[in-house]
Structures are given as C-alpha cells and as structure tokens.
Design a protein that fits this description.
- With 55 residues, this protein is mainly alpha-helical.
- It is built from one helix and no strands.
- It is rod-shaped, with a radius of gyration of 23 Å.
- The N and C termini lie far apart (73 Å).
C-alpha cells in the first residue's frame, strides 16, 4: 500500500479519526469509573463521620 497515494488519504483520515474516538471513549470510561470510586469514598467517609459523632 502506497501511503502517499491520494486515494489512501480518506482511508488514513477515517482510520485516524476512529482511533481518536476510541481513545476518547476509553478515557471517558476511565474518568467515569474514577469519579464513581471517589463518590463512594466520600459517602463512606460521611457515614463514618456521622457514626463517630453519634456515638
């Protein structure tokens, strides 16, 4: 495959775009999981503090 051929430019661009979209998607999944973990930790800490103050 001759990469410099004008016929291959659309294919290369669509491949690069697909890779970029996939990377963004994976990063978003990772961010959402991290956010969920932080939220759960905050809830647990709040409950623990409430328990300590009520005792």
């Amino acid at each position: 495959m001759d990469v410099s051929s004008p016929k291959n430019v659309p294919l290369l661009l669509s491949t690069a775009a697909s890779i970029a979209i996939g990377v963004i998607y994976l990063l978003e999944i990772r961010r959402a999981k991290a956010e969920k973990v932080l939220t759960m930790k905050a809830i647990m800490l709040t409950r623990f503090e409430s328990y300590c103050h009520s005792s």
